[in-house]
Amino acid sequence: MDPVSNSFNPHKLLKEEFVSNLNGSSMLEIASLSTIVPALFLLRRAFCFSYKSDATKKDDDAVAKSRNLGAYLAVVSLDFLFLIVPTLLVLTVLADWVHVLAIVLVVLILSLAAKRFASFASNSGSASQLRTNISSYRVNVMIVTCLCILAVDFTIFPRRYAKTETYGTSLMDLGVGSFIVTNSLVSRQARGISSMSWKAAFKSSSPLLVLGFGRLLSTRSVDYQVHVAEYGVHWNFFFTLAAVTILTSIIKIPPKYSGLFGLSLLVGYQWLSVNGLNLYLLSNERGTDLLSQNKEGLFSILGYWGIYLLGVQLGYHLFFGDHKPELKSKKWATIKVSCLSIIFWLTTVVLDSHVERASRRMCNLAYATLVLAQNLQVLAILMLSDCIGVSSISTLEEAINRNLLGTFLVANVLTGLTNMLVDTIFSTPLSALSILVTYAYLLSIITGIADFYGMRIKFW
Question: GO: which molecular function terms (predicted)?
Fold first, then answer.
C-alpha cells in the first residue's frame, strides 16, 4: 500500500511544493504592509477603549468574576474586530489594494497628528510611554507572524508574501529577523544590565532547545510538511533563537561597541558569501553530515547574530544610553527612529542592486538591513501615538504582550491541527477565510483568557 496514503498528511509533498520556489514581492509592497498594520493599531488606540476591571476585593464571588470575564472577552472581541480582522483581510483578499490603503491610513494618521503637534513638540516622553510603544511593536510582529504561519498554506494568501526560495524579499522572510530585532532592542545588553554567565545563558536557552527538539520530533512523527531549504533538515526557528542568545552571553561585547562588531561580522560574512559561500549554501546538494544537512540554519546564525548586535546598540543609543535627556523629547526620539529606518531602506536598495540580493535563506547583509529598516519603520509609526494623544495599548495587545511566547506556541499548535484536519491547498477562498478568521479569533480568546487568569509562559 502507498505509504503516503497512510500518512497523517497525505498531501505533504503538494503542500511543500506550494511554498517552494517563490520569488517574493517588492520592497515597496513590504513598506506599504509595514505601514498599514501599525496604523490600524494606532487608530484602535485613538478611538476605542480598553477593559478596566471594577473589582476591588480579592474574594469576589463566582458570578461577579464571571461577569468580569464576560466584559473582558467582549473588549477582546472588539479588539479582534478592529485589529486582527482588518490585518487578515489585508494579507488575503485585499492584498492588491495595499498601496492605496497605506496612503489612506498615512493621510489619516498625519491629519490626527497635525492637530496635536504643538502639544507634542512641547512635551517630553516618559519611560512608561516608551514601554507602551515597544510593547505595541512587539505585538505587531507577533500578530502578523501568527496570521501568516497558517494563511500561507491557503491559496487565498498571495504567493509573493510567502518565504522566498533563494533571493528576494517577502513579508514572511522578515519573521525570524523581526523576532531577533524585537528581542535585541530591549535586551539586557541594550539596557546596560550585566550579561549572564554562559551557564546561566545555556540554562535560560534550554527551553528554546527543548522546543526546537520538540518541533523536530513532532513534525517527523506526524509527517508534517517541512520546507528543507528554509533552515535545513533538522534545524528550526527555536534553535536559531537559542544559538544567538548563547553566543551573545559567551562573547560579551559592551553595548556601545556591539553595533560595530555586528556590522563587521555581517560585512565579513557577506564577503565570504560573494566569494563562493553562497554557491554552497544555495545548492540543493547535501551530504550525510549534520553541517551539510543543516547548512542554511547553521551559517545563517552569523547573520542573525550580527542583526542582534546591531539591535543592541540601537536600543542602547535610542532608549537606554547615557544621553537620555536629549532623547526624552518624544519628537526627537520619533524623528531619529524614522531617519534610521529611511537610512536602512536606502542601504538595502543599494546592497540589493549592487552587492548581492537580499536572501533570508543565508541571512546576508542586504537581508539584515531590510529587517532593520522594516522593524524601525513599524516602531516609528507606533511612536506617533505620542502625537495623537494615545497613552495606552488595547486590551488584546496587553494580553499578547504579557504572553508572547505562549501566544506563539498556541498559534503553532492550532496551525498544525488545522493542517492535519483540513486540505488547505484545496480550500475555496470563502472557506479559507472562514477558517482563518476562526483560527485568529480562537487564538485571541485563548490568549485573553490566559491573561485574565494570570497564566504566563515566559522563558527569556
Answer: glucosaminyl-phosphatidylinositol O-acyltransferase activity
Q: Which three cell numbers stand for residue 285?
A: 546538494
What would the mean pLDDT of 343-370 be, rounded to a whole number? 96
Please give the Cα distance from 39 to 61 (Å, whole number). Answer: 40
Q: Which amino acid is at 276?
A: G
pTM score: 0.89
Confidence check: pLDDT of 9 > 70: no
- Lookup result for grid cell 527538539: 213
User: Using CA atoms, how far apart are residues 256 and 260, in angstroms rounded to an integer?
Assistant: 8
Q: If DSSP codes are grouped into helix, strand and coil, which group holds residue 124?
A: strand
Q: Would you list the DSSP string of 355-421? A: T----TTTT-HHHHHHHHHHHHHHHHHHGGGGTTT--S--HHHHHHHHTHHHHHHHHHHHHHHHHHH
Q: What cell does 252 get?
A: 560579551
HSE, CB side, 13 Å, CA atoms: give it for residue 243: 18
The secondary structure of 315-369 as a DSSP string is HIIIIISTTHHHHTBHHHHHHHHHHHHHHHHHHHHHHHHHT----TTTT-HHHHH
Residue 192, pLDDT above cutoff 90: no
Give the residue among 300, 283, 299 at the shortest CA–CA distance from 291.
299
The per-residue pLDDT for range 340-353, each reduced to its tens digit, is 999 999 999 999 99
Question: Are residues 132 and 390 in contact, defined by beta-carbon separation less than 8 angstroms?
Answer: no
Cα separation, 176 vs 172, in Å, equals 9
Question: Of 200, 302, 296, whose CA–CA distance to 250 is shortest?
Answer: 200
Neighbour-count burial for 95-131, b at 16+ CB within 10 Å, e otherwise:
beebeebbeebeeebeebbeeeeeebeeeebeeebbe
Task: Dig out the grid coordinates for 144 from the structure.
Answer: 502578523
The alpha carbon dihedral of 161, 164, 170, 171 has a sign of: positive
Q: How far is CA 300 from CA 226, 234, 241, 350, in A?
A: 18, 14, 11, 21
How far the first Cα of the chain sits from its last, in Å, is 47
All cell numbers assigned to 67: 461577569
Q: What's the gap between Cα 130 and its chain centre? A: 19
